[in-house]
Amino acid sequence: EADAGEYMCDTGDRQTTAALLVKALPVLFKHWLKNEEVEEGRTVMLHCELTKPNAPVEWRKGDTVLQPSDKYEIRQEGTRVELFIYDAEAQDA
Description:
One of its GO terms (cellular component) is cytoplasm. This protein is mainly β. Helices cover 0% and strands 41% of the residues.
């Protein structure tokens, strides 16, 4: 983290130093994903909220990592993370 490092207090004649280690807090979920139901051809949005803003996230369907495309839109603002699935089809379930 940006504040980690070596610090020194210097009186001119004497000095003392200390190392500061900043442990990153884990990213937790404040609001979990919820099950959704959507009619075929519609757009659905899945969203959750994290405890840490702008934390890196990865959206997956099964083992497949989802990438932004005409089918999927991924948004992240602060602690809120959203996945839009456009033109829902049976295989999107």
